[in-house]
């Protein structure tokens, strides 16, 4: 099969790799329908995370089941499936408590920028659609496997409810999907923090009511201006830097909540500031599997269209250009067709 391999920062190539095989009775093999490049793939690409030995890349996928292990009965060959970047058995205590991304048997997907993928814990991880959906739905279904699921979790963790005032920190694919989630959950006011014209446009299309282009202390001051000096009910932190987290915590009102889903890089929370703020803080790898059936239904019924975050489509063989375009911020998110 063909798949992307990172060799060093800035060096991702598509190579011929060994075909994936069923290794455990709980595995499935899928033929990838679509995959993509994630903002988090840019950390090693930019040399901000060690690359180590050359290794495959990618954790987002939709596809058609080709083969299943003997313990997999929930999906069968020929079915179209959506999964999560974190696999889960859907039966352990953590899964039953609603946190499949902390499953006791969790494996993080890491080989999905390829034309075939082995899915561990397939029984609990994969959700099949009733039939093969029209191709127009595929980008949005792919988004559900990570960025939309993560945006949803950010809004859920931040306690967004009907009438809420919401601030979204970060205008990448996850932040934009967070706006969709806040809109769907009934937020009355959604303030997107963004300084890029095309992203502001998409933010408004997804439901943002206000745009704030200032950052840091100036950004916090603007949010206070817009919220009667109090701050927002819910803040979605979708970046993962120290500055973004500080900004998120300071934009929330006393008693408000921050949902943080940006993978933290050198983020430290000031315990004393948090103590006196009365702000609630919850985040982590999104429990995407918990939300999959609902999000798939929202996509197929036309209520959400998160696939619009893909503004570049490339054949898998040109994966290097996908990384480059996202690194240079020429693209929000690159879709790859195997
Ligand atoms: Zn589990």
From TrEMBL:
Homology family: Belongs to the zinc-containing alcohol dehydrogenase family.
Statement: the UniProt record of this protein carries the keyword Isomerase: no
Boundaries of every Enoyl reductase (ER) domain copy: 10-336
Name of the protein described by the UniProt record: Threonine dehydrogenase-like Zn-dependent dehydrogenase
Swiss-Prot/TrEMBL cofactor(s): Zn(2+)
Source organism: Labedaea rhizosphaerae
Keywords for this protein: Metal-binding, Oxidoreductase, Zinc
Annotated transmembrane regions: none
GO molecular function (one): oxidoreductase activity
UniProt xrefs under CDD domains: FDH_like_ADH3 (cd08287)
This protein's record includes keyword Metal-binding: yes
Stored PROSITE patterns: ADH_ZINC
């Amino acid at each position: 099969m063909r798949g992307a391999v990172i060799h060093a920062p800035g060096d991702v190539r598509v190579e011929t790799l060994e075909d994936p095989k069923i290794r455990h009775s709980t595995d499935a093999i899928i033929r990838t329908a679509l995959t993509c490049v994630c903002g988090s793939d840019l950390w090693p690409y930019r040399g901000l995370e060690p690359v180590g030995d050359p290794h495959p890349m990618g954790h987002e996928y939709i596809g058609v089941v080709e083969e299943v292990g003997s313990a997999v009965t929930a999906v069968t060959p020929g079915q179209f499936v959506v999964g999560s970047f974190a696999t889960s058995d859907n039966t352990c205590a953590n899964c039953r408590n609603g946190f499949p991304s902390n499953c006791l048997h969790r494996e993080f997907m890491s080989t999905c920028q390829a034309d075939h993928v082995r899915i561990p814990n397939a029984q609990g991880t994969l959700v099949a659609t009733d039939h093969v959906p029209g191709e127009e739905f595929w980008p949005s279904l792919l988004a559900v496997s990570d960025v939309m699921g993560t945006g949803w979790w950010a809004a859920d963790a931040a306690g967004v409810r009907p009438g809420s005032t919401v601030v979204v920190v970060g205008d990448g694919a996850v932040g934009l999907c967070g706006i969709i989630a806040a809109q769907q959950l009934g937020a009355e006011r959604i303030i997107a923090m963004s300084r890029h014209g095309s992203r502001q446009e998409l933010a408004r299309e997804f439901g943002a009511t206000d745009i704030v282009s200032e950052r840091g202390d100036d950004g916090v001051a603007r949010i206070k201006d817009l919220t009667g000096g109090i701050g927002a009910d819910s803040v979605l932190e979708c970046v993962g830097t120290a500055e973004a987290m500080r900004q998120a915590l300071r934009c929330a009102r006393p008693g408000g909540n921050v949902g943080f889903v940006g993978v933290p890089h050198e983020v430290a929370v000031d315990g004393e500031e948090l103590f006196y703020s009365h702000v609630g803080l919850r985040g982590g790898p999104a429990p995407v599997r918990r939300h999959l059936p609902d999000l798939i239904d929202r996509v197929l019924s036309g209520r959400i269209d998160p696939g619009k975050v893909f503004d570049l489509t490339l054949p898998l063989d040109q994966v290097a250009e996908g990384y480059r375009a996202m690194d240079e911020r020429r693209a929000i998110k690159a879709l790859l067709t195997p």
